[in-house]
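A quick aside before the break. I want you to see a complete sequence-to-structure record at least once, exactly as it would be stored in a machine-readable document. Don't worry about memorizing anything.
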Amino acid sequence: MNWIANFVRPRIKSLMGSGARAETPENLWKKCSSCGEMIFHRDLAVAQNVCPQCGFHMRITPVERFAAIFDSSVFEELPYPEVPSDPLKFRGEKRYADELKSSRTKTARNEALTAARGTIEGMPVMIAVQPFDFLGGSLSMGVGEGIVTAIEAAVAEKRPFILFVSSGGARMQEGILSLMQLPRATIAVDMLHEAGLPYIVVLTDPTYGGVSASYAMLGDIQIAEPGAQIGFAGPRVIAQTIRERLPEGFQRAEYLLEHGMIDMVAHRHELRPTLAKLTHLTMKRSRPRARPVAVPPVVTATATRVVVPSAPPVAGSTAAE
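That is the input. The structure line, written in tokens, reads:
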């Protein structure tokens, strides 16, 4: 038996070309966490990470978000602000410094917020994305400073500010320094209001904790993606606290829309035209219209024969005249 395991099987694997198989790219297919459908990665990219089978909105990176929203996928990222990376020298099950290093390596980003400037149908805008893939989109000193810096740039350049947010709340590894970013972000939002610039928030799945109780709910217009979970505490915690069964769809975007917590639910494929319409409307500017195609008019007419009665001859005149 050892001879078969140690010699025959490796020999068969080498003859079958296991080395060539190892070069096959991984992650060509992705499974939808909602319906279980297997989706080819290229089809998923074209669909902006929306399941073509059930319409479930999967998470999306900041760069993918910018490419889908900005004109011709052209944008300029703002540099990440410099802040102390581990101000409290926190250590739990893992060192906070190691967790930061791991997330930065995995995402190729410095923090849980990326901002960029660009245009939407010709309207200059500033967009910030707070994604969940970087330590759960938690609010840190870096995220708070990034929001303030991006809003200050939007005010200086007179651009509407759009925030795509997905977060679990404050980053506890930074303690009170993390919580202090909530009033800082709120004051920055007031700067937009004083400058007469719109602040539009797009809530994505999931948005919880102190972030949902602060700047994520202060938008002039609140939009949510379909099925996004939005709240302060999770539904399981609430159910255990009140000892009652929660209603169907509790804390989902559609539930919040029905109860007046948000203004609209917009499909990801409709976000770009929706944001273009809202930014032009709030900035009191007309949207550029496509040049109408000249179409020759369709003339429908029928030939009608008109019979003119002959006048009686006048005296002194001849037929030749």
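Two observations worth writing down. Residues 80 and 146 are 7 Å apart (CA to CA). The chain has two domains: 26-58, 59-282. We'll return to this after the break.
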